[in-house]
Amino acid sequence: MKINILAGAPQATIPPLQDSETKWIGVDRGVYTLMEQGIMPIQAFGDFDSLTELELKHIQDVFPELKVYPAEKDETDLEIAMNWALNQEIEEIDIYGATGGRLDHMFGGISLIYKALQKNVRVRLIDKQNTLTMYKEGTYNIKAHSLYKYISFVPFSLEVENLTLKGFKYPLHKRCVPVGSTLCISNELIQQNGTFSFTKGILMMIRSND
Length: 210
Prior knowledge:
Layout lengths: L1 E5 L16 E5 L1 H8 L6 E3 L7 H10 L14 H10 L5 E5 L6 H15 L4 E5 L3 E14 L6 E6 L3 E8 L5 E7 L14 E16 L2
Parallel strand pairs: 1-2, 1-4, 2-3, 4-5
Antiparallel strand pairs: 5-6, 6-10, 7-10, 8-9, 8-10
Helix pairs in contact: 3-4
């Protein structure tokens, strides 16, 4: 099963939300944004401090048992939503609205991708310009995408061992890439299909457009 989550980043950073066949979770203002676009979330989480009283009342009319979390708490609204999703029978989560605003919220979202990876759940952060995914060691196929020309690989662990890139403009063969390196920023596929592989570490892949 797959779940989409919409958080509360600025509206201008969020791509069109047209995946109506997938179940949605709304987080804080993301609940209201989904409802505005005619998408009814299956769950709503947050302290809703970014909404007006009228907007919150509208959500409460739809979710009469809505729990409004305190603003001061140990988990972000997004983590509360992620914890709920990870307790379902789930394989994939796409998160929208977690980038493009506050950097602390963005890095918090990236940390949650790592948390999900430990449970073997694939998570992507998606905005109008980028997608970000995280991988354990292995071999992965990658296809060219008309919206995302550039592909970057960034270590999330202290180092990534034996990183190999095939089908790329800048290929790589069994290279150790330490955290802090920009070696694998702004690469491109030169074929419709490519592969990347590594034998140890945690690797982030970011696909970006112009």
